[in-house]
Amino acid sequence: MTAPRLEIDLNKIQHNARTLVRRLAGKGITVTGVTKSFLGCPPIARAMLKAGVTSLGDARIENLETMRRANVLAEMRLIRSPMLSQVDRVVAAADVSFNTELDIIGALSAAARRADRRHEIVLMVELGDLREGIMPGDLEAIVAKTLRLPNIVLKGIGTNLGCRSGTSPDARNMSDLSALSRSIEANFGMRLNIVTGGNSSNLDWALNAEHVGQINDLRLGEAILLGNDPLNGTSIAGLYTDAIVFVAEVIEAKLKPSMPWGDIALSPFTRIPATNDSAEILQVILAVGHQDIDPAGLISAPGIKIVAASSDHLVLDAGRTQIGVGTEVAFKLTYGALLRAMTSPFVSKVMTSIGKRMVGHVDVNELNEAIA
Ligand SMILES: *Cc1c(COP(=O)(O)O)cnc(C)c1O
User: Fold this and answer.
1) Could you confirm whether 12 is annotated as catalytic?
2) In principle, which of 125, 164, 289, 360 could form an S-S bond with 351, CB 3.0–4.6 Å?
3) What's the predicted TM-score (pTM) here?
C-alpha cells in the first residue's frame, strides 16, 4: 500500500461521535461535527452524521463547498468569521455563519438579498481567550443592528475558548454566556435557538456541570477524531484514540553513532540528540518530513524514539526493535500533526470501515480539483 498515509477508520470515528452525541444529549446539548481538520472529506463527514451530529461546521468555505458538491445533507455552519471578499460564496454554501463584525454582517445581508436567500447568523462573544468575539458590553448594540438587516436571521450566540490563550471553559464564563443569551431574549422579545458553548475543550465542563444553563450546542472536532480532551491532553474514556493513524516507510536502517561528528553548525531543523554518548543506535529513516507532518506531534510505539526531522526525512532511534528497509512504522497523532498530514498532498488518505477493506481513497489533490 502507498506510504506515507493516514489510515482513517470510519467505524471508530462514528463510534466516537455517537458516544459524545449520547453523553451530551443527557445534558440537552447537540453536537456540531467540525470538519476542518479533514478538509470536509465527505465520507468522514457522513460518518459523523450517521452518529447523530445535528450540523457540520468548518472554518473554511472551500470545505463546505466540497461537502455540498458531494451532496452531504446537513445544516452547514461556517464557524470562522467570513471574509468580506467571500460573502457571496458564504451565502451560497453556508446556512449559518459565525460573526463578530457588523460590516461583514451588512455585506452578508446584501449578498443574501442578491441571491434571494435568508442567511443565519451566530454572534460570537469574547469571554477571555482573546481570539474572535464581540466584547460582552457591545453585544446588545450589535444585536439591535443585526436585527434590522434584511435577509439576515439572528439564530444565536456563542463563544470559543481554549484556542489562543488556553482560557478554560468553566462555571463562570459559561454562565456569563447563558446570562447574555437570557438578556437578549428578554430585551428583544425573541428566542435564540443556538447557544454554542465551545469546542472539544468544553467537554469536561459540559459533562460534569450540574447545570449547563442555556448552552445547547458544542462544536467538536478533535474529541471525535482523536478521542482527546485538548484542555489537559488526556484521552477521553470510552473513545478510540487510534481512529486515525499515520504510517510511513523505512528507507534506511543502519547502526550509527548516536552523536554527530565534525564541526557542528546550525541546520534548518536543528534538534540536539538526546543521548550524549558515543554508543551506536539502530538509526532508522522514514520517507517523510516537516513538509508532511509535525514531527513533534507524532506519538510512536514504546521503544521507538523520534530523534530528528528535516523537510523529507524523519530519523528514529529504533531501540531494540528490529526494523529494516521497506518496513512500515505507525504513529498516533496530535491535532497539529493531523492537520499538517491531512493537508500534505504527499500523504494519501486511506479510509476503511469494518467488514469492507477499502471504502475510499481521497487525496488532497482530488479534493482541490473537486473544488476548482
Ligand atoms: C476548530 C474550531 C472548533 C473545533 O475545535 P476542536 O478542538 O477540534 O473540537 C470549534 N469552534 C471553532 C470556532 C473552531 O475554530
Assistant:
1) no
2) 360
3) 0.93
Average pLDDT, the chain: 93
Cβ 215 vs Cβ 195: under 8 Å: yes
End-to-end CA distance of the chain: 28
List the grid coordinates of 135: 466584547
Determine which one of 12, 27, 36, 305 is catalytic.
36
Residue 189 pLDDT exceeds 50:
yes
Q: What is the amino acid identity at position 88?
A: D
Q: In terms of C-beta density within 10 A (0-12 exposed, 13-18 middle, 19 or more buried), how is residue 372 classed?
A: exposed
Was domain 10-226 assigned CATH 3.20.20.10?
yes
3-class SS string, 82-112: CCHHHHHHHHHHCCEEEECCHHHHHHHHHHH
Q: Answer whether 158 contacts ligand 1 (Cβ < 6 A).
A: no
CATH 3.20.20.10 in the chain, residue ranges: 10-226
